[in-house]
Specification:
There is one protein chain. With 877 residues, the protein is α/β, with parallel strands linked by helices. It folds into 4 domains: 297 residues, Rossmann fold, CATH 3.40.50.1820; 142 residues, Rossmann fold (3-Layer(aba) Sandwich); 112 residues, Rossmann fold, CATH 3.40.50; 116 residues, ANL, C-terminal domain (GMP Synthetase, Chain A, domain 3), CATH 3.30.300. It contains 31 helices and 36 strands. The protein has an 8-stranded mixed beta sheet with strand order 1-2-4-3-5-6-7-8, sandwiched between helices. It has an 8-stranded mixed beta sheet with strand order 15-14-13-11-12-16-17-28, with helices on both faces. A 7-stranded mixed beta sheet has the order 10-9-19-18-20-21-22. α15 crosses α20, α24 crosses α26 and α29 crosses α30. The longest helix is centred in the middle third of the chain and has 18 residues. It is globular and about 95 Å long.
Length: 877
């Protein structure tokens, strides 16, 4: 079959060779015929010298065809690699040996093959499914040749877990032989795990080596050789490989499809523990057949380049290196006020219908609780670096838990409940916490959806609920145990390591699945310091946190803090009365609130009484973070807090804040191409990566005025990295020391930044690149328009501009807008933004992100508009 081709495989890649066997399952002087996909001859014919060899090992029941994209990409890459993708013996088009081959035999087989090929280093192994274990076994035996390890959806040990149900069924004596050999059921089930489904030609190619029962004998034996328990013959080999890889010091990469019913995230976490140096990328919504679900070849080759950086890498764009200032931990203010009996955190309690009630916790009480809970967590077994997921609403309870984790050196994982059950579950599974502390509703979800982590209840539970929810302990129990330990001088707390991980904070999910953003203790402290320096904050200030991300900063700032009575997962539930009552409870000097929250505050302002109005009149700083607010709305907010300096910082979960502008500054800036978000805050720098004519981002960084491109920032408080998203992190940090935000904008002559949309929302028209924000502001200047979104419809380079509006009348049915308003919108957009509009559509409500209720999902609207304009019945997102 040399010279044969399959879809995506060049005939010259396919070759056979005969290899002497040293496996103990074979008789002496036995040789076997192997089939491989090998691009070496093609590279030789082109006179190309590969950087090294990728040894790719498939699992069961696939074959070397699984790696076809890697073979092709490595052949045509700027820096080519030789790829040898093997068909294991009894599998693919390699020889059916008639011998039952155990795990140790298969590792030996692979070594026999590489010896016969005469391979020299550097070699990078690439494995999937049980091919991952076998490739790792080869790696531990060939350390002198090994340069790196790459794994996709595999496992090296049960690690205390029960066998996945699919494998348990395949091993069942009543099913095993029938399902794996007599019929092709096992193959068909495996092929069905692809997302999206395999095409018919690809599915046929995967089936081709296994058309008969005889050809499937290796499939059956492979399943039978799964060492599910210590008594299995292959258990010692699995134990040895699992232990030996801990001493591998080579660069490692794990690419994972979390939608895998066999090798789930728990196996990924086990591998990360054994190979802590590994870079990790989880492809949300991908599954077991990851190389079929996603392009893994491009990031694999990029990782190979990044793991072997050349000495002449250009670092000219890196911001000037500065010595780190003396580190002041997030707990420094709490420690300094350990004997202070004044209020530190205030909880707003449910109203009795006539008065708003509150409950205060003093600095002294908070410090004692933080220490006791930290000590209790340590007694439970929580160690520095362990991840603790907190599913607790903003409150004194959440504050105590956050600072207890910081005290202990545990890493807090905070995912917004507003992500919804599915989004929240994806975030939690992605972060992989060892512990989960939550309110009862969260624990019900954790139990039902099998979220990872030992479960800890915030409050006391009945014995029945304790058992039902699978709870290990409760926060009151932790506090009591920690208090006893501290009384006996136990649970000492180590000094905070400034550069250790402190928190994983999840993005809003407004631009795709929510991403985990990792901050170190130094970076969290830098965020606090930036806010203090930019806004002149000081200990003794009183903070109303109507924007959830800021709820954790109160104690670090030395400010008494309160969260208003609202659903923090839906900012627009904040009413003017609730905001004013919270302000009155602490004599607030500062208010943080999201734009959507302030819109509803304005809408309900008439409900406030004179006492509530007076409470807001005492505020001297009001910050609206999360998304820009127009000058008109900010002026109305100013009327509610007439003594306040009103500011709108621009930032993101990855860096908050980046720039700042006051209401006065917004008025002075006037109309422009986008939203003016001001100048960089203390310690921050902003550059622009210019856009090319096709809308792509170029490599240069510019600080010249008028250059349109991606906004790139540097600051001490920029995130450390994206969590388990190596590919995303590489894209965001392609210029060392800078974070690529994904936002588009430009700087003006005064150094102010104007935001004009997202990279994914750029419109490429026949007249050139267009951005949406200026056109949206123009459309919203029409009196009947409440909100607008501007999107591109059609192929790149020839896109038509479509304006989608939400009117004040809020029509119940989406469709074309009336002719008069359509004309007004077209005229406004052309006059103020210089953009010709092809169509104007009306919808009842704009689809927005959950956290802010203000970031419009333009991508979904573009798809809907395309359907509507092509005569189809599109469904609104």
């Amino acid at each position: 079959m040399v010279g044969r081709s399959w879809p995506g495989v060049r005939p010259e890649f396919s070759r056979y060779l005969t290899v002497p066997s040293t496996a103990v399952c074979d008789l002496p002087d036995t040789s076997h015929r192997w089939h491989v996909l090998d691009n070496g001859a093609v590279l030789d014919a082109q006179g190309l010298t590969p950087a090294g060899t990728i040894l790719a090992v498939h699992g069961n029941p696939t074959w070397s065809y699984l790696w076809r994209s890697v073979v092709e990409a490595a052949t045509v890459a700027e820096t080519p690699w030789r790829v040898i993708a093997v068909d294991q013996l009894d599998m693919g088009f390699s020889e059916r040996t008639g011998t039952f081959r155990r795990l140790d035999d298969r590792v030996t087989d692979l070594g026999d093959l590489t010896d016969a090929l005469g391979l020299s280093g550097p070699i990078v192994t690439l494995g999937h499914d049980w091919g991952g274990v076998i490739s790792l076994g080869w790696a531990t035996r060939h350390r002198d040749l090994l340069a790196g390890v790459v794994l996709t959806n595999t496992a090296v040990h049960p690690a205390g877990f029960t066998l996945p149900p699919a494998l348990s069924l395949a091993l069942n004596p009543a099913v095993h032989r029938w399902g794996t050999q007599t019929t092709p059921a096992f193959l068909k089930v495996t092929h069905s795990l692809a997302h999206p489904p395999l095409s018919a030609p690809v599915k046929a190619a995967f089936m081709e080596p296994y058309l008969t029962s005889t050809q499937r004998a290796g499939v059956a034996n492979f399943v039978a050789d799964i060492p599910a328990e210590p008594g299995h013959p292959s258990w010692p080999a699995l134990e040895a490989i699992s232990a030996d890889i801990r001493s591998l010091r080579v660069p490692s990469l794990m690419m994972w499809g979390p939608r895998d019913p066999i090798f789930s995230d728990r196996y990924l976490r086990d591998l990360m523990d054994r190979l802590p140096q590994a870079s990790v990328h989880r492809f949300e919504f991908a599954g077991h057949l990851l190389p079929e679900d996603r392009d893994i070849a491009t990031p694999l080759l990029a990782w190979l380049t990044a793991s072997l950086p050349s000495e002449d890498n250009d670092r000219s764009t890196a911001p000037p290196a500065e010595a780190n200032p003396p580190f002041r931990s997030m707990l420094s203010e709490l420690d300094a006020r350990r004997d202070d009996q004044t209020d530190a955190v205030v909880d707003m309690l449910p109203s009795d219908g006539s008065t708003r009630l509150s409950r205060a916790v003093s600095w002294s009480s908070l410090a004692r609780r933080v220490d006791a809970i930290a000590s209790g967590l340590a007694e439970l077994g929580v160690r520095r670096g362990d991840r603790v997921n907190l599913l607790v609403p903003p409150s004194s309870e959440l504050t105590a838990l956050i600072y207890a984790c910081l005290r202990l050196g545990a890493v807090i994982v905070v995912a917004d409940a507003g992500l919804g059950t599915r989004g929240l579950g994806r975030a939690i599974r992605g972060a992989g916490p060892g512990y989960l502390i939550g309110i009862e509703r969260a624990l019900i979800g954790a139990r039902a959806l099998n979220w990872p982590g030992q479960r800890i209840a915030v409050g006391d539970l009945s014995p029945a609920k304790h058992r039902l929810l699978g709870v290990t302990t409760t926060v009151p129990d932790l506090e009591r145990a920690g208090t006893r330990a501290l009384a006996g001088n136990g649970s000492p707390f180590e000094t905070t390591d400034p550069d250790a991980d402190a928190a994983v904070l999840f993005t809003s999910g407004s631009t795709g699945p929510a991403k985990g953003v990792v901050y170190t203790h130094r970076q969290l402290a830098a965020m606090r310091d930036t806010l203090q320096e930019t806004y002149g904050l000081k200990p003794g200030d009183a903070l109303v946190a109507g924007f959830a991300p800021f709820a954790l900063l109160g104690p670090a700032l030395g400010a008494v803090s309160v969260t208003p009575d609202m659903d923090v997962t839906s900012p627009r539930t904040l009413t003017a009365s609730a905001l004013a009552d919270a302000a009155a409870a602490i004599d607030a000097t500062i208010v943080f609130a999201s734009p959507a929250a302030l819109v509803n505050v304005l809408a309900t302002a008439a409900d406030m009484d004179s006492v509530q109005r007076a409470a807001l009149e005492g505020v001297n700083l009001l910050l609206s973070a999360g998304a820009p607010l127009g000058a008109r709305l900010l002026q109305q907010v100013q009327q509610l807090a007439p003594q306040a300096s009103v500011h709108t910082p621009y930032g993101m979960t990855e860096a908050l804040p980046v720039t700042d502008i006051s209401l006065t500054g917004i008025i002075e800036a006037g109309d422009g191409d986008g939203v003016c978000v001001g100048t960089p805050v203390a310690g921050a720098q902003v550059r622009i990566a210019p856009l090319a004519a096709d809308g792509s981002v170029t490599d240069a960084l510019s600080e010249s005025p008028g250059v349109l491109g991606e906004i790139v920032v540097a600051a001490p408080h920029v995130k450390d990295r994206y969590d388990r998203l190596w590919i995303t992190e590489q894209a965001s940090s392609q210029h060392p020391g800078w974070h690529h935000t994904g936002d588009v904008g430009q700087l003006d002559a005064e150094g102010r930044l104007w935001v004009q949309g997202r990279l994914g929302h750029i419109i490429t028209t026949p007249d050139g690149v267009r951005t949406p924000v200026a056109a949206e502001l123009a459309a919203e200047s029409v009196s009947a328009i409440r909100r607008a979104a501007v999107v591109g419809v059609g192929p790149a380079g020839t896109q038509a501009v479509v304006v989608i509006v939400e009117t004040d009348t809020r029509s119940r049915r989406p469709g074309l807008l009336d002719q008069e308003t359509t004309h007004s919108v077209r005229s406004a957009v052309l006059q103020r933004a210089g953009i010709k509009v092809s169509a104007v559509l009306s919808i009842p409500d704009m689809p927005t992100d959950i956290r802010h209720n203000s970031k419009i999902d333009r991508s979904a609207l573009s798809e809907w508009a395309g359907s509507v304009l092509s005569g189809q019945k599109g469904s609104l997102p």
